[in-house]
Automatic annotation (TrEMBL):
InterPro entries: F-box-like_dom_sf, F-box_AtFBL13-like, F-box_dom-containing, FBD, LRR_dom_sf, LRR_FXL15/At3g58940/PEG3-like. Residues 1-31 are annotated as: Disordered. Residues 14-26 have a biased composition (Basic and acidic residues). The lineage of its organism: Eukaryota, Viridiplantae, Streptophyta, Embryophyta, Tracheophyta. Coiled coil: none annotated. Residues 121-352 form the F-box/LRR-repeat protein 15/At3g58940/PEG3-like LRR domain. Residues 373-414 form the FBD domain. It comes from Eragrostis curvula (weeping love grass). This is Uncharacterized protein. Residues 1-13 have a biased composition (Basic residues).
């Protein structure tokens, strides 16, 4: 015995034949066998750097990315603070010049518009952008806001998604009439200055819009959404607290008529508190934040009418479609929260955030929950999130009401606790009277995480816009 391990390929070689490989034959490359048009569609869905790397896979793939619908996003391109945006501008220019196919998406967030206005205009006029479907321009914050070139409107007929941030929309006198976006399904404006008549015209001429975000914009006081039969998600924020620009006009009056498809209404940072009128919201299932105590001058939601403290004007009116409700409470006033809950008998998730938790709890004011039951606490409320929760007496008394009353509660989450030692957590369970909880299935979660200030930018990417999980 010479210790040699004899295999089939060795036996074949010993008999004078070629060595036979034991390995199974490679799996057929089914993807590469697809037509070029299909491969191009697949590649166009990849990030810019990933799409470019497909050219190195094989000779079959070498030409695909250069001819596929271009998805150009500078988020994956090289950027250095010492060179600023010069390298990005150079790389983008090179890609646009070399690409042989059409462009599907253009997303730029690392280029200054103020010092590259001519370059932007030249890019937007290139023939490969003629049928652009998605345009996402997020500019660095410059004061005064730089104005977009008029050429941005030449894609109006083909655009499906338009995202703009930190810029000034071209003035109405730069073109005749209001541009129409017949294919537009998504519109997002963040810190954009746009004339009221122009914004109203764009929205009115875009009947296919399904999602819309209007975040801290200026230049208009009133907006009526009356020709949007497909609008499912609407998010509005007025006046971010990080800047003070009282000299600019902001949204004062929002009207949504015939909102039969509206499923989510998201409101945030409503410092100037515009009046809100929503009619025929028969599918609305996500609502918030409703700011109690310092709410809207007027808030109409279907047959519900709220006063300026966001309390229902008339009793007995309900909106049973809402499943997720978010309340912004200036101070822990239990009675006002209870009055609001009465309007929404089918809530399954309740988010409550407040700014002044150190203030003493304002209780139920003689209200007897046992005599006057709250429908959602008895039948539907499964998840409650309170933030921030520090374990102060006002926090404990506020939370304990729900622990002792929510009969089908599954999870009560306390965020922004600032203390999560085993001893502290054990003390909170005792103080909250967890042993006498109304629902035997209820679990309690205490953690440090707290809602990001920019949560609204990503609210449409989650089933629950108010939860970052």
């Amino acid at each position: 015995m010479n210790g040699r391990v004899v295999t089939k390929k060795h036996k074949r070689a010993d008999r004078g034949g070629a060595e036979e490989d034991d390995r199974a034959p490679p799996e057929p490359d089914l993807i590469s066998s697809l037509p070029d048009c299909v491969l191009g569609t697949i590649v166009s869905l990849l990030d810019t750097d990933e799409g470019a790397r497909t050219a190195t896979l094989s000779r079959r793939w070498r030409h695909v990315w250069h001819a596929a619908p271009l998805n150009l996003d500078d988020d994956g391109l090289p950027f250095t603070f010492d060179r600023g945006d010069r390298l990005i501008v150079s790389v983008v220019t090179g890609i646009l010049a070399a690409h042989r196919g059409p462009a599907r998406r253009l997303a730029l967030s690392f280029v200054y518009l103020s010092r590259n206005a001519a370059t932007f205009d030249a890019w937007l006029r290139l023939p490969l952008l003629d049928a652009l479907q998605e345009l996402d321009l997020c500019f660095y914050l410059d004061i005064p806001y730089p104005q977009l070139p008029v050429s941005v409107l030449r894609f109006a007929a083909s655009l499906r998604a338009l995202d703009l941030q930190n810029c000034r929309f071209p003035a109405a006198d730069c073109f005749s009439g209001s541009p129409a976006f017949p294919c537009l399904t998504h519109l997002s404006l963040y810190e954009v200055i746009i004339d009221e008549e122009l914004l109203q015209g764009i929205v009115s001429n875009s009947p296919g819009i399904e999602t819309m975000k209007l975040h801290n914009n200026f230049g208009h006081r009133r907006l009526s959404l009356s020709n949007l039969p497909r609008l499912r998600r609407l998010a509005v924020a007025v006046k971010g607290c990080f800047m003070k620009r009282e000299e600019e006009m902001e949204l004062d009056d929002l009207v949504v008529e015939d909102a039969g498809s509206l499923e989510q209404l998201i409101l945030d940072r409503i410092t100037y508190r515009p009046s809100v009128h929503i009619t025929t919201a028969t599918k609305l299932n996500v609502l918030g934040y409703l700011r109690l105590q310092t709410g809207f001058p007027v808030f109409y939601l279907g047959n519900l009418v709220f006063d300026k403290r966001m309390l229902p004007v008339s009793s007995g009116k309900q909106l049973s479609t809402v499943r997720t409700l978010a309340l912004d409470v200036a101070k822990p006033n239990l009675k006002q929260v209870i009055d609001s809950l009465r309007c929404f008998p089918s809530i399954e998730k309740l988010h409550i955030k407040t700014e002044n938790w150190w203030m003493s709890l304002e209780g139920a004011g003689g209200f007897d929950a046992l005599v006057t039951p709250i429908e959602c606490l008895d039948r539907s409320l499964k998840i409650i999130e309170l933030q921030p929760y520090k374990g102060y007496n006002s926090h404990v008394e506020f939370a304990k009401f729900f622990v002792e009353r929510a009969k089908v509660l599954e999870l009560m989450k306390f965020s922004g606790c600032g203390g999560d030692s085993p001893r502290w957590v054990q003390d909170q369970h005792r103080l909250l009277n967890a042993a006498s909880k109304a629902s035997r299935h209820a679990q309690f979660s205490l953690g440090d995480e707290i809602e990001s200030r920019n949560w609204m930018q990503y609210c449409f990417t989650r089933d629950d816009p108010f939860s970052e999980e």
